Amino acid sequence: MNYKILIADDHALVRKGMRAMLLGHDPDWEIFEAENGIKAVLAVKEIGPDMVLMDFDMPKLDGLKAARQIREDCPGIKIIMVTQHSDAGLVFEFQRAGMHAFINKNASDSDFLSIILQVKSGHRYTHIPDYQIFLSEHTCGFSAMAGGSRSMASILSEREREIFRLMISGIRPAQISERLGISPRTLDTHKVSIFRKCKVHSTQELLSLAYKEKLFAED
Asked: Structural domains in the chain?
């Protein structure tokens, strides 16, 4: 049976370009199109694709809401979110919605195709500036948290845990300081402690750890 891919994008030229790229790689792939989120949801029910390339910014129903509905209706479908946004909070919304990958619209055709093939083979991938993290369980390039399955409560102080949650929610440092009523210097001190305890060296690695360990969903 041929591999089926649905392209959901409100720009006809984008859909045409993706179709040409995909068929150039494998002429036997079956390519379908949808011009908005609502039609994408309906098309999935009708044709049962193996993969959906989902634009985020679409009329009537945006890509994130459409993806959530598709995941609810057909949880086995692989979805790659295509976006020009790189906000950390939005990235985590993609992850929470069960995206198999998300890629920046400025990516090259070769990068895009590479990600499609990785996802097709069962991996997860991120291609967004500042969050270029390969998420295959066999090749994650970040340090595991000390103790593995230990709860955050046993590793971080109450204040550090609070800051951790805000950081992985995409809240900017200035907003965290204002919300918690602490100075930027005090926030930096807490961040250094969090990095040390979690055995990471940057906010990007912390985001990776949070996703890998599903810490963002912790009560």
From this structure: 4-127 (3.40.50.2300), 152-217 (1.10.10.10)
